Amino acid sequence: MADFGGTETAGSDSVAPQSLTQSAREKLRQLVARIEKLEEEKKSIADDIKETYGEAKGMGYDTKVLRQVIRLRKQGRQEREEQEQIRDLYLHALGEI
After folding, report:
1. How many CA atoms lie within 13 A of 62 on its CB side?
2. Structural contact between residues 52 and 63, judged by C-beta atoms closer than 8 angstroms
3. 7 in helix, strand or coil?
4. What is the Cβ-side half-sphere exposure of residue 16, based on CA atoms within 13 angstroms?
5. 22/7 Cα distance (integer angstroms)
6. Are 54 and 47 contacting, i.e. CB atoms less than 8 angstroms apart?
7. What is the pLDDT of residues 10-66, one digit of tens each?
8. Which residues have C-beta within 8 Å of that of residue 34, sequence separation ≥ 6?
9. SS3 6
């Protein structure tokens, strides 16, 4: 729990900005700086992934299928097989297979 300095008024749901202790303000600044840095890294990684898919497309790979392969590889074999069985059941029920 953040150290708000105990100056919150009774019955109030908000905390006045000046009620944060110096320590709490510094911790907040550090957290915000870390989050901002991580957001920048996340954007950079997303750009790298997009560029890699572009390379794959340039080499003739189907990126939609490649994304499916990546998603499937994240799953365990048993989970993947169960989903395939259910999908096949649904498709069969709809007369698609």
Report:
1. 4
2. no
3. coil
4. 8
5. 14
6. no
7. 455 565 657 899 999 999 999 999 999 999 999 999 999 999 999 999 999 999 999
8. none
9. coil
**Contact by Cβ (8 Å): 29, 21:** no
Six-digit token string for 32: 């915000």
State how far the Cα of 27 lies from the Cα of 47, in Å rounded to an integer.
Answer: 30
Residue type, position 9, single letter: T
CA–CA gap between residue 48 and residue 42 (Å, rounded): 10
Q: Where are the domains of the chain?
A: 19-93
Per-residue pLDDT tens over the stretch 49-61: 999 999 999 999 9
Return the DSSP state at 9: P
